[in-house]
Write a structure and sequence with these properties.
alpha+beta, three-stranded antiparallel sheet, 6 helices, 6 strands
């Protein structure tokens, strides 16, 4: 179910991906729920609420659940959007707790056409490119509970293979 207003719709493939994510143990166990994946893979909605899997000692959502519920999605979306000629990795992240979460919150992952064009352009120019993307958990009133910065690494498959081969040669020396 969409958590944000959007004109995008799910495809049968993105709907199956959403279903698979929600039953994948490492995602199901963190308490987050993928609510929507656009058919073009440029938008994803996640929700998180206080429950038996997410509750910490003081009765709020555990910090590990907060972070792990947003962890993999930018990387996975970029893998779909860019296709098999690119290598995509999560490179890093930072998180700031703003308020304790006791109710349901939501997070929106957006990848614009301009960002995709910029990433492709930078990879074509440099062979590889790293960039940061902001996220936040908010309630239905827009009150922010946690903010994140996700670092994503993208390389052309050829450059990445060469980089690995060079590293292997260096390790053998």
């Amino acid at each position: 179910m969409k958590q944000y207003t959007t004109d995008k719709t799910e495809s049968s493939r993105s709907r199956k991906m959403r279903w698979a994510f929600n039953f994948w143990p490492c995602i199901w166990c963190n308490g987050g729920k993928v609510e929507f994946i656009a058919g073009d893979y440029k938008e994803l909605h996640v929700s998180l609420k206080l429950n038996i899997r997410t509750r910490n000692r003081v009765g709020t959502v555990y910090g590990g659940s907060i972070y792990s519920s947003v962890d993999p999605y930018f990387m996975l979306l970029f893998m779909e959007v860019l296709g098999k000629n690119y290598v995509v990795w999560d490179k890093g992240a930072s998180m700031k707790f703003v308020k304790p979460i006791i109710d349901k919150v939501k997070c929106r992952f957006l990848i614009s056409n301009e960002l995709v064009a910029d990433v492709k352009s930078q990879v074509e120019l440099r062979g590889e490119y790293s960039f940061d993307l902001p996220l936040h958990y908010e309630d239905d009133n827009g009150k922010v509970y946690a903010t994140f910065s996700k670092s994503v690494y993208v390389a052309s498959k050829e450059v990445y293979k060469k980089k690995l081969a060079d590293k292997a040669k260096k390790n053998l020396s």
